[in-house]
Each structure stands twice: as structure tokens, then as C-alpha cells.
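Milestone 3.1: sequence recovery, worked example.
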């Protein structure tokens, strides 16, 4: 066991309006299975890059072990995977084969060029190589991006058997499966907690409830002290005037009793005002990590019929390959349906059939008359330009759009930025916010939570449960599926009957 010490760490990107970290001080144990969480843009990846030495900052980082960060570039991706892994970690072939088996990488993949592996296979190969590097603390940044639900469960089991790493991920089930400590980067600083992500969420909710109660108490105290200060000021003013109006037997102003009384009342008024300022300062320290944007409402439109749309024995082929085979699906009013299945089974294709983006090669696609559909595509990289203009193009209310984005952790600077400068998670939030602003009969979302932080995921779940839209979605975050879906539909593999 050794300690990782971070002392007075300050870092800002060039041209950024404010630093990512200012005076960050922490002590971490390098044997912890540490979950790194926080809103998009709070600095999770930046902190991993600072630890690995990829970025320089003011302050000091001290650790006995060195750090290695995933994902990382591979010098020659044309090499067989086992050779590319050996170049990274220097391990013997038998150890590479054993580690690949532990993470669930098929042995045959080891002999294929790394560049030809699927995203999930490549992740498994490089992550297992990372854990074979001697004497390093692995830093793991979003390893689930190319994994389906079963792949994520397998990754959780693999990481649970490891000792000492820092994992940045938005997948709550993964964090709960393998982590024993949580470091949350919040608006008010960093919070360190022993336990899994669910423990952190419960503690955060408890802390917020206590702080809201204390804020309400202080709000009342500030009102009471403000009124008391006003009255005391009036009394002091009257006493000050009275001391000049009162005269002794020689006609001189009486400064004794009245003067003492006036001074006492002035002192009291100042004391009350000082207590009020202290209460205001205490209140300002509360809820710094809580987003205080107004409540967000979804506006689903009522549909006249029970059945909205569906597929009947639908088949789609791309370049001679079956992308979807013989799928039957009906969406009913008020349902929230999750399409499940492994990578390549045609979940996105099924959604695109219903939105009219692709045509079926066989079978039938039907949509009810006048059906309005709001779509969130899987890819958000196309977003460009001013966010206000983007909202107006979609017919969205700009105030509502910005309120949703503020609720999901956007700063005011992010609202004014060109969309192309936003992070992947922020772009996805912008697409979700646009959809939430639309009054539709059916919402179709394709992997809506890609790159979105865990706290925002919880907020989106709460919103859906509160507003009850009819929703068809594809999502690998099984915590989201369990909480939101009223029904799940498992699609067979494209090559299955």
C-alpha cells in the first residue's frame, strides 16, 4: 500500500474562462478500486491525464507507483493483437493469453491484426495489456463505449478481481460491481467516500436534504434578522434625534442618558446586521454542488389511438448481410419499451425503420396517422453552431432548452459556446434537451446516455418517470433500463431465426 498525494493542484486549459481545478488537495490509496465520477466537464479525464503526466499543472502529485492510462495509442495496429499487447506490457505470451481469457477476449482474436478487431475486442485486448504492466496503477477512462450489456457485466467481473485502479465511467452498474471507493468531482470541490456508486448517491441525497433544510432555516433567519435590523435602526435613529432635542436647565442638549441610549441602540443594530451577514455567508456555502435550474417538464402529446406504430416480420439487409431478420414489434400508447440484444442484432436498424430513415427489404412497417416522433440519434458529432439558433431551427423554446441544459450541468459559458466545441457528453445532452422540448406522441432515442454523466442519467430517469412519455429506446445502461422500461424486447442476432 502507498499513498497518492495531490497538493494544491491548479489547472486550466488555454483560453478557458475558468480553471478545471483550483487548489485541489487529496490523499488516495493506490490499492483502492476507485470510481471517478462527476458531471461532464468537471475534469475526470483531465485528472487522469494529470496523474499520467500527459498534462502539466501547478501544484504537486506524489506517488510511489507510476500511472498508465487507458485508452492509449498503439504504435503499430497492423500487428497481431498478441504482438501489439506484448509491445505495450512486455509480458510473456502465456500471460497475455491467460489475461485475455480472464477479460473474455476470444483466443482467436489474439492472432488477428489489432486494427481489424471490433471496438469491444480492441478494448479488451488493450485493457488486459494495461493490467499486465508491472508496477503501475491503471487509470481507466470510459471502457464501456463499445460494449453491450453482457460485455459490461463481464468487464465488471474482471475489474472486481483486480487490485488498485482508478476508473472513470458513467455506467452505475459497472461502478457498483467493481469499486470500493468513490471520488466525485462536484461544483463545490471533490468528495471522497468509501463504498460503491449507489452508496455515494444515497449519501449525496442525504447531504442535499440536510443542506436544503439548513438553507430554509437560514432563509427564515435572514428574513427575521433583516426585519430586526430595520426596527433597531429606526429606534437608534429616533434615540439619536431625541438626545439633541432634550435640554438641561441651562438650555444645553442632554447628552447623558439619551446619548447612552442612542449609542446602545446603534450598537445593537450593527450586531443584528452582522449576524444577518453571517447567516447569508453560511447560506452561500450550502448546495454549491447542486444545480438550481428550474424544474424541467416533458410535454408528450396525447395520441388518439392505442397502437402507435410497429414492425411485422421486418427484414433489412445491408451489402448482402442481414441487419434485421423477421422482427415483430408493436408500440402501444404509454409504453416505455427498451430494445435489447447483443451488438449487431439490429436494434438501431429497427429504430430507423420506424422513423423512416431506412426501408424494409421484406415485411411491413406501419405508423399511425398523424404520428409525431421526436428522435435522438446515436451519433451527436454533427452538432455545429450557436445553441440558440439550433433550438429555433427545431422549433424549441430557447428558455426551456437552456433550462434543461442548466439542469443537466451546463455552465453559462457552455450555453454560449459553438456546439462543435462541446464535449461528446454535452453534445448528447443538447440532442436530448431538444427532444425534451418537443411535444411528440412518441420519443425514439438511440443510446441516449452515451457519454452522459451518471448524475444526469438519474435526472433523466426522474424526468421520464414524472412525465410518462411513450418511449422506444436502445440503451446499454441496465440501471436505466430497469428503472425506466415498462417492457423489454430482446432482438435475436441478425443471423438467427
Amino acid at each position: 500500500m502507498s499513498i497518492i498525494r495531490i497538493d494544491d493542484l491548479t489547472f486550466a486549459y488555454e483560453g478557458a474562462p475558468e480553471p478545471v481545478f483550483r487548489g485541489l488537495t487529496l490523499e488516495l490509496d493506490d490499492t483502492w478500486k476507485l470510481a471517478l465520477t462527476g458531471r461532464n466537464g468537471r475534469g475526470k479525464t483531465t485528472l487522469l491525464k494529470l496523474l499520467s503526466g500527459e498534462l502539466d499543472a501547478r501544484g504537486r502529485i506524489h506517488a510511489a507507483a507510476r500511472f498508465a492510462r487507458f485508452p492509449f495509442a498503439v504504435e503499430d495496429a497492423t500487428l497481431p493483437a498478441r504482438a501489439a499487447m506484448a509491445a505495450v506490457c512486455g509480458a510473456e505470451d502465456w500471460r497475455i493469453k491467460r489475461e485475455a481469457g480472464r477479460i473474455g477476449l476470444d483466443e482467436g482474436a489474439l492472432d488477428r491484426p489489432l486494427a481489424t478487431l471490433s471496438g469491444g475486442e480492441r478494448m479488451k485486448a488493450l485493457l488486459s495489456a494495461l493490467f499486465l504492466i508491472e508496477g503501475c496503477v491503471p487509470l481507466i477512462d470510459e471502457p464501456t463505449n463499445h460494449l453491450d450489456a453482457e460485455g459490461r457485466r463481464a468487464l465488471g467481473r474482471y475489474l472486481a478481481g483486480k487490485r488498485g485502479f482508478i476508473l472513470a465511467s458513467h455506467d452505475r452498474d459497472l461502478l457498483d460491481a467493481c469499486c470500493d471507493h468513490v471520488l466525485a468531482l462536484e461544483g463545490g470541490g471533490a468528495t471522497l467516500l468509501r463504498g460503491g456508486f449507489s452508496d455515494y448517491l444515497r449519501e449525496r441525497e442525504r447531504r442535499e436534504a440536510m443542506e436544503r433544510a439548513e438553507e430554509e432555516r437560514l432563509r427564515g433567519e435572514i428574513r427575521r434578522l433583516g426585519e430586526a435590523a430595520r426596527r433597531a435602526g429606526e429606534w437608534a435613529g429616533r434615540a439619536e434625534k431625541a438626545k439633541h432635542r432634550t435640554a438641561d436647565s441651562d438650555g444645553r442638549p442632554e447628552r447623558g442618558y439619551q446619548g447612552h441610549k442612542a449609542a446602545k441602540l446603534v450598537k445593537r443594530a450593527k450586531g443584528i446586521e452582522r449576524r444577518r451577514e453571517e447567516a447569508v455567508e453560511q447560506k452561500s456555502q450550502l448546495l454549491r454542488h447542486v444545480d438550481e435550474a428550474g424544474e424541467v417538464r416533458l410535454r408528450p402529446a396525447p395520441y388518439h389511438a392505442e397502437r402507435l406504430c410497429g414492425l411485422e416480420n421486418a427484414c433489412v439487409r445491408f451489402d448482402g448481410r442481414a441487419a434485421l431478420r423477421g422482427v415483430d414489434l408493436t408500440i402501444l400508447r404509454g409504453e416505455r419499451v427498451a430494445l435489447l440484444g447483443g451488438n449487431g442484432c439490429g436494434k438501431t436498424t429497427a429504430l430507423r425503420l420506424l422513423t423512416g430513415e431506412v426501408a424494409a427489404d421484406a415485411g411491413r412497417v406501419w405508423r399511425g396517422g398523424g404520428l409525431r416522433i421526436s428522435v435522438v440519434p446515436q451519433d451527436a458529432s454533427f452538432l455545429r453552431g450557436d445553441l440558440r439558433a439550433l433550438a429555433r431551427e427545431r422549433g424549441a423554446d430557447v428558455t426551456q432548452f437552456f433550462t434543461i441544459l442548466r439542469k443537466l450541468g451546463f455552465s453559462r459559458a457552455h450555453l454560449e459556446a459553438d456546439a462543435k466545441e462541446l464535449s461528446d457528453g454535452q453534445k448528447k445532452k443538447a440532442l436530448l434537451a431538444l427532444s425534451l422540448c418537443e411535444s411528440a406522441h412518441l420519443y425514439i432515442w438511440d443510446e441516449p446516455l452515451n457519454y452522459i454523466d451518471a448524475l444526469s442519467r438519474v435526472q433523466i430517469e426522474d424526468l421520464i418517470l414524472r412525465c410518462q412519455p411513450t418511449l422506444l429506446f436502445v440503451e446499454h445502461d441496465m440501471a436505466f433500463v430497469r428503472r425506466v422500461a415498462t417492457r423489454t424486447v430482446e432482438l435475436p442476432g441478425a443471423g438467427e431465426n
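Residues 283-288, 290-294 have pLDDT under 50 and may be disordered. Residues 98 and 142 are 24 Å apart (CA to CA).
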